[in-house]
């Protein structure tokens, strides 16, 4: 059954004693496009847990899902409000009208405000650059390394590397260049599969007056490993002596983690043995990497054995290690063992943190014991460690995987209506679910709601919606979103444009194909100037 049979609108708050008769509130504009119907639920679905408190507690607890200033004074609150207001304006305007729109915003431009807005615009380098150029002209603006780095991150995502290096030159002239700048440029190159350029960026540090040190080299190894290029990281590591660097334990553990992510336990073990031969004894980080690698390879008994070896060697397990084992065992539906590690961690005095609670929530969800999952979320609220947006995303993913889409949608709706604002990841989950349920009409309304809150979509979200619109023969809408994506400077995957082009040609829309192809070519070949 699709999502059309959803939820009866109710202004009343939740009452937990009788979960079988609970109705869920929908906020507009989504409610306008859903046929509302009262739905009764089996008590096991909610089990007396109050989803009302589940949603309220994200902003009520100590953990926030946004990158706003952590201070709770009036200044921090004011900056948060201005950030949201500016992002809403930017989401609603075309590039040509951004400056005039911002001029009417009446905000005090400070380095903190600029940084927060640029973080929010990390998925739209074109808009981020336009905002930055506007902000430069405003009273109160000051250049900062953090602001430049945030802009470089956004531009790097859309592969505007010529503009990135222009900004690096600006930073050098202003004395704002940092080692972090080179690390993040290397990371963007590596994720764009430009490994040679990632390494060259590290090598350019000296040209810009910075002598590379071992921490910088380790950052490069980490960037390459986490971007799927651990073989190149290993090659760089093997040539360390030529660069006059002596590896430390972090150098080894970075490579171990990289091979673990590739599930190449043989290479991981080789690095581990070399590390020990060089006189480094495994610490908690090392054991954590070994345990995580075995869990990733679904070698849970080996992971548990490593845990016991760790204890025998008088190396105290960290909260991260308990979290890894709980999540790994829970994903294999070895729920009893997962919960045993949770209780063991509490018994030795470790106060559970949000990631550990999330692992327990995920473990219960994996076994579809939603009553217990909601109970743990309630416990998180009571002890003041969440729930986070990540907690919601875990629950939504499991409900959707189990085809309990109506319940997932209710969780999402309560999240919003109780003041717990979803992040981009949550919207991606929900839009994908709606498209898979062939409710692209509701997906577009959720999309509009997201943008109205100043949250910009990324490439994967565009792909989901455009492909669904094409599948439903809504070609004008598909082309509209495709052009919007290009306007944001996002390059679509080749397969996505190929599919859209073929569909449009089948429909006789050659003119539209030509327009889109020309615009795409422009994006590919034109570097931003600013």
Task: List descriptors.
single chain; 530 residues; mainly alpha; globular; disordered N terminus
Short summary of the structure?
This protein has 530 residues and is mainly α. It contains 28 helices and no strands. α9 (179-191) runs parallel beside α11 (214-226) and α11 runs parallel beside α13.
Order of helices and strands: HHHHHHHHHHHHHHHHHHHHHHHHHHHH
Q: Give the number of DSSP strands.
A: 0
Shape: globular
The rounded Rg comes to 25 Å
Terminus-to-terminus distance: 51 Å
Query: What structural class should be given to the helix and strand makeup?
Result: mainly alpha
Helices, by number, come to 28
Strand content: under 5%
Oligomer: single chain
Low-confidence stretches: 1-71
Average of pLDDT: 83
Main beta sheet strand tally, sense and closure: none
What is the helix fraction of residues, given as a range? 55-70%
């Amino acid at each position: 059954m699709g999502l059309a049979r959803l939820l009866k609108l109710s202004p009343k708050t939740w009452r937990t004693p009788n979960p079988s008769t609970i109705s869920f509130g929908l906020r507009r504009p989504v409610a306008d496009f859903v046929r509302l119907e009262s739905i009764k639920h089996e008590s096991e679905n909610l089990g007396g847990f109050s989803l009302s408190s589940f949603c309220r507690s994200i902003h009520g607890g100590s953990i926030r899902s946004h990158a706003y200033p952590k201070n709770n004074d009036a200044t921090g609150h004011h900056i948060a409000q201005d950030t949201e207001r500016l992002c809403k304006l930017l989401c609603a305007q075309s590039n040509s009208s951004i400056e005039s729109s911002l001029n009417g915003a009446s905000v005090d431009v400070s380095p903190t405000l600029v940084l927060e807005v640029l973080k929010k615009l990390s998925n739209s380098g074109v808009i981020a650059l336009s905002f930055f150029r506007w902000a430069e002209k405003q009273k109160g603006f000051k250049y900062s390394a953090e602001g430049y780095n945030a802009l470089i991150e956004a531009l790097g995502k859309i592969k505007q590397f010529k503009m990135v290096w222009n900004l690096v030159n600006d930073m050098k002239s202003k004395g704002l260049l940092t080692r972090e700048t080179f690390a993040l440029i290397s990371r963007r190159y590596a994720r764009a599969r430009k490994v040679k350029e990632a390494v060259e960026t590290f090598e350019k540090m000296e040209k810009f007056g910075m002598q590379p040190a071992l921490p910088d080299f380790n950052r490069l190894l980490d960037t390459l490993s986490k971007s799927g290029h651990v073989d190149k990281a290993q090659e760089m590591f093997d040539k360390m002596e030529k660069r006059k660097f002596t590896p430390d334990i972090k150098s080894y553990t970075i490579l171990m983690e990289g091979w673990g992510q590739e599930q190449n336990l043989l290479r991981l073990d080789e690095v581990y043995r070399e590390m020990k031969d060089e006189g480094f004894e495994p610490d908690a980080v090392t054991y954590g990497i070994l345990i995580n690698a075995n869990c990733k390879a679904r070698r849970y008994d080996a992971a548990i054995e490593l845990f016991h070896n760790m204890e025998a060697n008088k190396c105290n397990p960290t909260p991260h290690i308990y979290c890894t084992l709980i999540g790994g065992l829970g994903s294999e539906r070895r729920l009893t063992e997962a919960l045993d590690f949770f209780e063991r961690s509490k018994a030795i005095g470790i106060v559970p943190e949000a990631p550990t609670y999330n692992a327990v929530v995920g473990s219960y969800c994996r076994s579809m014991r939603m009553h217990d999952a909601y109970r743990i979320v309630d416990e998180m609220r009571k002890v003041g460690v969440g729930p986070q947006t990540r907690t919601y995303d875990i629950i939504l993913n499991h409900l959707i995987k189990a085809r309990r889409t109506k319940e997932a949608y209710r969780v999402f709706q309560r999240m919003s209506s109780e003041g717990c604002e979803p992040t981009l990841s949550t919207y991606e989950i929900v839009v994908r679910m709606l498209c898979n349920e062939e409710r692209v009409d509701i997906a577009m309304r959720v999309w509009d709601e997201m943008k109205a809150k100043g949250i910009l979509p990324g490439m994967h979200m565009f792909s989901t919606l455009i492909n669904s619109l094409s599948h439903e023969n809504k070609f004008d809408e598909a082309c509209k979103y495709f052009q919007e994506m290009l306007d944001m400077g996002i390059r679509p995957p080749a397969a996505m444009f190929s599919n859209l082009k073929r569909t449009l040609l089948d429909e006789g829309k050659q003119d539209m194909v030509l327009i889109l192809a020309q615009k795409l070519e422009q994006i590919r070949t034109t570097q931003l100037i600013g």
